[in-house]
# Entry
Amino acid sequence: MSANITKVKMTTSLGDIIIAVDNENAPISAANFLTYVKEGFYNGTIFHRVIPGFMAQAGGFDTDFNEKRSHDQIKNEADNGLKNNRATLAMARTNVPDSASSQFFINYKDNDSLNYTSPTAQGWGYAVFAEVIEGMEVVDAMSEQPTGSNGHHQDVPKTNIVIETAEIVE
# Structure
């Protein structure tokens, strides 16, 4: 992580998480994420996909599992040198490399298979832009919650794990 960071406090229904957003190495993803934080977009959203030993994903759905309207998609900057290691946050996306918008995930382990390898459809990877610096035990506790299906979504926590607030802190 660079020295040019912005700290974000995410208050969840399971506890607080402090995130260091890397403005220097991931300027596009960092600015995108911080825009959503400043707008209050993440307040009242849920961690809608939790796979123990892999990752916890959030940033797209409210507590009634309605998809929230996001801003335009951003350029994938997974070639920024940051790796999908334990406790890092990366932008979630579809199979299209430049399709990330509001959704992100927190890695439970070093997920080397998600790292950038080449500028091809298979090699683009997922852009890391931040790291949990306090509260990883809260993220780990998410992986202990029972999950199931909700429509065509799998690995959905049966009890909502809510991001109550996300705010920039000093």
